[in-house]
Amino acid sequence: MFTHQIDAHLALKLINEEDAEDLLNYINEDRDELRKWMAWADQMQTVKDELGFVRYARQRFADNSMLPLTIVVDGKPVGSLDLHQIDATNRHAAIGYWLSTQYQGQGIMTRSVQRLLTIGFDELNLHKIVLEADVNNHPSQAVAKRLRMHQDGILRDQIIINDNFCSLVQYSMLENEWENAD
User: Fold this and answer.
1) Which of 18, 38, 40, 116 has its CA 20 to 30 A from that of 158?
2) Residue 54 neighbours by CB distance under 10 Å
C-alpha cells in the first residue's frame, strides 16, 4: 500500500474505500465552507457518492493520470490531496486538496503539499507542478506562498462555483526550483 509518513502524527496514503465514510463526515461538517471553493462540495451527499469518487480516483491512479491521497492524522482520514492532470509526456501536473476545518491552521496542508511536491518531482519525474486557488481563498494561497511557489498570474473567470464565475491565482514550481529549495 502506498503510504508516506510525514511525521509521527501525519501521513499520506492512497485513497481507498475505507476512507469514504470518514471523509464524507468531514465534508458534511464543512460543506458551507467547502462549497465556497469546491464545485464538487454539493455533489458529495452520501457514502455512495464518496465511494464513487474513490473508485473514479483509483481508476485515474491505475491509468497514471492521478495520484489521489488521503491526509491521515493519528490514523484518521481528515482530508484529501492529489496530483491530477498528470501528463507524463510534458512532465506536469496540478495539485488539488481540502482539509477538515478542525485540522486547519496546524501546518498540516503545507507539510502535505510539500511531501506531494517531493513525490511529484523525485518519484514521478515531473518538471512542473501547478496549484490554483480562488483569488479570495487566502489560506490556500498561503500554502503556495509558504512553499515559495511562483505566482504565475490570475486566471480570470476560470471556473464556475455556485453559478458564479470565479478567478484563480495560479502558482507553479519547476523541478530545478524544488531542487534548490532549502
Assistant:
1) 116
2) 20
Identify the structural domains of the chain with CATH numbers, from first to last.
Answer: 3-128 (3.40.630.30)
The pLDDT of residue 80:
96
Q: Are 83 and 95 in contact (CB under 8 A)?
A: yes
Q: What stretches in the chain show pLDDT beneath 70?
A: 1, 182
Residue 125, judged by CB atoms within 10 A of its CB (0-12, 13-18, 19+), counts as exposed
58: left (phi over 0), alpha (psi -120 to 50) or beta: alpha
pTM higher than the cut 0.90:
yes
Extract the C-alpha cell encoding 127.
Answer: 518538471
- Strand order of the β-sheet with 76-87 is 3-5, 10-14, 66-73, 76-87, 92-99, 128-134, 164-174, 150-161
Backbone phi, then psi, for 113, in 5-degree steps? Answer: -65, -40
Dist. CA 115–CA 144, nearest whole Å: 13
**Phi, psi (deg, nearest 5) at residue 36:** -65, -30
Distance between CA atoms of residues 137 and 171, nearest Å: 13
In one-letter notation, the amino acid at residue 1 is M
pLDDT recorded at residue 53? 95
